[in-house]
């Protein structure tokens, strides 16, 4: 089994380190040829997970969209994928698509996490740690720790940056802290001696070393490395396990007990979204989503246009926007096409569900909020037998927001939903 509960030992310097060697597969899904390469890569990984005991875990970079892309061409392998995900052999998520740099606005990142985690749960589970290829911790947006914590993710893995600590904590602009760790890339010669100079003093007494899994080399050569981990461990005087970024993240949960206090970094990266995608995101958040929530909560009037399953159309719009954001850097034409598709779906929803809503006036008699807090949606069931009220809003300030509900009947419980529990992820 993969060692996932390594605890640091106090009082030992340069002690043996548990090295999590992770096989990562990533193919940019920007063309039909790339998608076929992706299928071959996952075929190869599934065969090894089922037939080679030394090959314990495989991490799919690219988010839940990579799983969907694979199964769109290999639907007969659904049960194989489901079995591997449920048994923690195939690791995917929690993103729907890998976040681009610079990071987009918080609402887009929130939907990326929401759709990614829910898509992965269809197959069994989403990764409990977020992996971000490229970039230094200080360059991440300040809102990210709060969003990750809202989805139950308490560890972030980034690629190691020169001059930056390999482990520590990220402190968001609201005070939320999450642990972070860094991934080192294995040299071509497979030696760990040079890397140990960097990871040997990690507070967690663990390290993550990644080896990209590609089809460029013959399978026997790639597999020989995994089968020879015992010999490499003897030369490095460390414990080496075939693992994943998620397996390494378990060790980061012990940072607080380290005899050496880990550093805390405050990320200061700026969030930026291409103008066309930002306009579509605002249309979805401020008009299409509230209207869809209201449409599902009451039957349409005879004089209203009727649209079936508005949440399904809303999901398609967000997926198109996320795909467009992911590919626009490498394929501008495809990115712009997907952005137009998302915008068209959003406008169809708004037009057919009643136009831009004025929810502040509509719910003034029921819900009030502190200055600055914008009420975007409140689901008010018309059927008195139905229970519950969901209020969704936007707090643009740094301080806490106060929301008061004046009920027309007694509420037994007031509960604040997590970011991953609400219908649209908001």
Overall shape: it is: globular
Instruction: Describe the main β-sheet briefly.
Output: 10 strands, mixed
How helix-rich are the residues, as a percent range? Answer: 25-40%
Give the mean pLDDT: 79
Assign the structural class, choosing from mainly alpha, mainly beta, alpha/beta, alpha+beta, or little secondary structure. Answer: alpha/beta
Number of helices: 13
The SSE string, one letter per element, is EHEHHEHEHEEEHEHHEHEHHHHEEEE
Radius of gyration over all CA atoms, rounded? 24 Å
Would you report the number of β strands? 14
Span of the ends, CA to CA: 38 Å
Q: List the uncertain runs.
A: 1-14
What percent strand? 15-25%
Topology:
Layout: E1 18-25, H1 32-51, E2 58-60, H2 64-73, H3 78-86, E3 90-91, H4 106-123, E4 130-132, H5 144-150, E5 155-159, E6 167-171, E7 177-185, H6 193-199, E8 206-212, H7 219-227, H8 229-236, E9 239-243, H9 245-252, E10 264-265, H10 275-297, H11 310-327, H12 332-352, H13 359-362, E11 367-369, E12 374-379, E13 390-394, E14 403-405
Summarize the structure.
With 426 residues, the chain is α/β, with parallel strands linked by helices.
């Amino acid at each position: 089994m993969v060692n996932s509960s390594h605890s640091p030992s106090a009082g030992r310097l340069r002690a043996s380190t548990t090295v999590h060697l992770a096989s990562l597969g990533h193919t940019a899904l920007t063309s039909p040829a790339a998608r076929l390469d992706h299928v071959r890569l996952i075929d190869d990984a599934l065969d090894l997970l089922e037939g080679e005991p030394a090959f314990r875990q495989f991490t799919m970079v690219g988010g839940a969209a990579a799983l969907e892309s694979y199964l769109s061409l290999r639907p007969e392998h659904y049960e194989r994928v489901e079995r591997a995900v449920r048994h923690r052999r195939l690791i995917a998520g929690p993103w729907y698509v890998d976040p681009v740099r610079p990071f987009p606005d918080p609402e887009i990142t929130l939907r990326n996490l929401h759709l990614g985690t829910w898509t992965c749960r269809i197959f069994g589970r989403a990764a409990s740690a977020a992996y971000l290829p490229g970039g230094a911790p200080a360059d991440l947006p300040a809102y990210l720790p709060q969003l990750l914590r809202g989805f139950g993710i308490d560890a972030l893995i980034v690629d190691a940056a020169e001059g930056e600590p390999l482990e520590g904590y990220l402190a968001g602009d609201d005070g939320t802290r999450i642990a972070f760790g860094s991934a080192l890339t294995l040299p071509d010669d497979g030696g760990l001696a040079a890397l140990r100079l960097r990871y040997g003093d990690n507070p967690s007494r663990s390290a993550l070393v990644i080896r990209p899994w590609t089809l460029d080399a013959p399978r026997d050569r790639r597999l020989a490395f995994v089968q020879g981990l015992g010999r490499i461990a003897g030369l490095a005087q460390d414990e080496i396990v075939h693992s994943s970024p998620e397996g390494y993240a378990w060790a980061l949960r012990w940072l607080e007990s380290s005899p050496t206090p880990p550093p805390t970094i405050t990320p200061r990266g700026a969030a930026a979204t291409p103008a066309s995608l930002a306009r579509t995101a605002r249309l979805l958040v401020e008009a299409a989503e509230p209207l869809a929530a209201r449409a599902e909560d009451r039957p349409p009037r005879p004089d209203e246009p009727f649209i079936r399953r508005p949440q399904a159309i809303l999901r398609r719009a967000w997926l198109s926007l996320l795909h467009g954001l992911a590919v626009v850097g490498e394929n501008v034409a495809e990115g712009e096409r997907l952005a137009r598709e998302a915008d068209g779906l959003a406008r169809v929803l708004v037009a057919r569900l009643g136009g831009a809503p004025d929810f502040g006036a509509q719910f003034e008699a029921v819900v009030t909020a502190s200055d600055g807090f914008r009420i975007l949606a409140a689901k008010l069931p018309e059927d008195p037998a139905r229970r519950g009220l969901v209020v969704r809003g936007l707090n643009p300030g740094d301080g806490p927001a106060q929301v008061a509900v004046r009920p027309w009947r007694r509420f037994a419980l007031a509960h604040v939903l997590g970011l991953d529990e609400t219908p649209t992820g908001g």
